[in-house]
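Sequence in, structure out.
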Amino acid sequence: MKRLDKKQIMQLLPHREPMLLIDELKDIHRLNSATAVVNVKKDSFFVNGHFPGEPVMPGVLIVEAFGQAAAALTADGLDKATYDNKLVFLMTIEKARFRNPVIPDCILELKIEAIRSHGRVWKYKGIAFVGEKKMADAQWSATIVDRKK
């Protein structure tokens, strides 16, 4: 099964540290589904301020990681000429639920699936896990847009 490491993800997405949240994309089924890996570390950029003494990965960053995973899945599956000079932007976030706090020093796995696409608009769903424990889930849509040159 196909895997992308962080260096390969960086070739597909414009995100860079500290906002590149996903470290790996694995179990890739072209334009359909994948699992993203986020190494949530004790020195992650949000730890000192959210919350001092009891750090928790912010829910908005979990949603951002879902979006990055979906963008990488889509970019990897499209023909390079089709995706060249494009960006993927979140359009909607629906049914986001945060079930358990994500504490640093864990591996967060995001199982994502493309539900449908219509032209440049795609809809996805995802579930976040630490081990077997469900941490969050959401549905979202995104659009592929031309980069400003």
